[in-house]
Amino acid sequence: MSVIRRLGMGLAALGRPAYINVGRVHELPAQRGVDDLRRATWEVLDAAYLAGLRWVDAARSYGLSEEFLGGWLAERGHRDVTVSSKWGYTYVGEWRMDATVHEVKEHSLSRFKEQYAETIRFLGEALAVYQVHSLTVESPLFQDKALQAALAEAAQDGVRIGFSTSGPQQADTVRRALELEVDGQRLFSTVQATWNVLEPSVGTALRDAHEAGVHVLLKEVLANGRLAVQPPETVRKVARRHGVGTDAVALAAALDQPWADTVLVGAVSTGQLRSNLAVLDFALDDADREELHSLSVPATRY
User: Fold this and answer.
1) Less Cβ around it within 10 Å: N or C end of the chain?
2) What is the pTM of this model?
3) What is the CA radius of gyration of the chain?
4) Contact 128, 83 (CB under 8 A)
5) Stretch 130-136: mean pLDDT
6) CB burial of residue 298 (10 Å; 0-12, 13-18, 19+)
7) In a 10 Å sphere around its CB, with 0-12 CB exposed, 13-18 middle and 19+ buried, how is residue 80 labelled?
8) 3-state DSSP percent of the chain in helix, strand and coil, to 5
9) pLDDT tens digits for 190-216?
């Protein structure tokens, strides 16, 4: 598969007015109304599609990301885009920059049914992958047989069922989740996990998942913007050597993992996307890999 087809577009930082990414503020429109962010989203999606990206990832909790994406697909008529979304968090920020709480988590059967219906309303048949958002080893999903059965039923309708992970126990979550079966069939066929040069601890579990036929997506490869805006000197050094930005180096490190099927970029402007896509112009060498490997920190500290 070509490098560009291994890249996907994530809408976490475009679908709502406030998000945790570093380096986002000055790239978005000064006004953060719904129409402003819809235009910004469509501009980035147009540029990503023109560049060759064919995977877009959204979530119920990413504000209006599903609505923006569904509208863009309908307007442009694209039918060759793989669309993934997530359920389990509800956006409650009411489109306020100063909201105290932006999202609320609930992994329950009722929440799945409610959010699946909402997702289908916005994305319809374009939805290819539906993921449990931020699954952890403590999630009630692991004991909820009715919820597991409902997820398996959605899979029978042709939607691939997956999960995303977060936190210091990602590897344990991945291994436990991939053991789940309903009627003798593995429940999950995709996994989306945080991986970057600072926090690569889930790598072995993801490699095993890939080898078992599970589609692996990587998120937060820029460490929520830190590797682009506040990178360690080691990353700067590698970037200077190749004449690219530190964001491209972080993406190259993710693409360098042979088990990473899709690497998500979270650009919020066409300028950021162009900088990200410099990853297509070079490859890491052994010296780069050795230097970047030295940056990893314990997952609990990350």
Assistant:
1) N
2) 0.96
3) 18
4) yes
5) 98
6) exposed
7) exposed
8) 45, 15, 40
9) 999 999 999 999 999 999 999 999 999
